[in-house]
Amino acid sequence: MNRIYEIKMKRKLDCAISCMVLLFTFPLLLLIGIIIKLEDGGKILFTQYRVGKNRVPFKIYKFRTMKENHENPEIRAFQGDKRITRAGAFLRRTSLDELPQFINIIKGDMAIIGPRPVLPEEARDEEGDFPYEKRFSCLPGLFCTIDMKYRAAATRELQFTMDVSYAENISFKGDMVISVYTAVNVLLGRNIYSS
After folding, report:
1. How far apart are the C-alpha atoms of 175 and 37, rounded to whole Å?
2. Alpha-carbon distance 164 to 152, whole Å?
3. Which of 21, 105, 136, 188 has CA 20 to 30 A from 125's CA?
């Protein structure tokens, strides 16, 4: 049953949910875009290349949360980061900056639940006997197991370990559990930034 869900149902469900989310949140998306534009006049969306399924790179979409031309992938955002705009701080706290990724899901770059997409320089190779490559066997996700508790506070080592576990055990029940726990974590504003 889990295999049927992974192969036949998961993608269709993701597309249906993503279309509904974008349709019903369109006024909110428009409002967020206007606020970002009014704050500093910069671009509304932040785009960046990430590594997807089978290590195929794709361009991810997010609402811009940092000041124009202040993004630096080598420095992860932290509490009190002066690069983050006022609107950006709210978007990060509520995870609303992630909403444009539903476009990535419809395009087939991502899934709603899956390993978080990493930067090319973070896409590590196999180490020892641990099957890191397994995390690239499925579509990366808007949410993942790491979001159930740790969010940005997790180390890459822990994230990749949990990603592999997810890729090896994809199920409808598992995706529902991740969705519920992640929603609670986001609503409570836990672990927005790395420690």
Report:
1. 35
2. 18
3. 105
